[in-house]
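Researcher: Structure for this, please.
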Amino acid sequence: MKIVIPNDYQDMVDRLPCFSLIRHHDVVRYRTPARDENELAQRLADADVVVVIRERIELTRSLLERLPKLKLIALIGRTSQYIDMAAATELGIPVATGVSNSPVAPAELTLALIVASRRNIALEAERMRHGEWPCTLSHRIRGSTLGIFGLGAIGALVAEGGKGLGMNVLVWGQENSLKKAAAAGYEAAKSKADLFERSDVLSLSVRLRKETRGIVGPEDLARMKPTSLLVNVARAELIAPGALLEALNKGRPGYAAVDVYEEEPIVDGNHPFLKMPNVLCTPHLGWAEWDNFELYFRETFEQIVKFEKGEPLRLGNPTVKPRAKR
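Model: Predicted structure, token format:
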């Protein structure tokens, strides 16, 4: 079979131990994203299987209709809003999904960003490279308030780490988050406004869904302190378009640490955040570590092996009637 991996940004999928499961096939990997749908269609034209790495590509109806040879979409992860499931089902293309959802790596990165930003680590390391002296003053972490918006699996680990650093944990979210906060001994904010007003560091740990898109608006950010830090390792779309940039320019919050962007990847330094000394940017590192990749890719490659053997798959579109193999 011909297997295409359209966006292996790290150029490392073939170095994972689990790659041995599909190495005997004709596997084509691309490091850089396609410029448009036409180029992506050309890359996928002869694929029997496309391995979709999270939200790195969008499989629209118009694109899928241009891929008559495609027999299987193998998704890294459990769900993707960037695959037109209805179109895939109608066209007879099964979408095999993963099952794991490890919170460890993104929680670790969140905590790392908190420490690096509050203590000016990245800023001072870069200034030192350029011979700048003396150093700036940073903000103490111990005794400050860590706001957690959404105490799910990731938020719970971030809260645990923040508590270990001596931070006071303040939680807001849906009823389940507030129940978890009470069980863990964390303080629940009186409202979303209270969370934004009181947090010295505010971590967004909300899952992106239709109802949470743009859940953080300009009015929320304007409530934050001029010394506070907003951390977003979740999804950029949780914040209303352009709201964070505008808020930072107005000085509330005073700082941001972001790992996610509305359009990815960010290439050639082409993003306004990268020109702001009060913003710490990382290139969607939240889930990108060896153990995590081995976990997610192994699940996906195992589904490809099952497909090859004609065994039942774990499908995101279980009603699909697969198109005939040629």
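Researcher: Any notable elements?
Model: The chain has two domains: 2-101+289-309, 104-281. The first strand starts at residue 2 and ends at 5.
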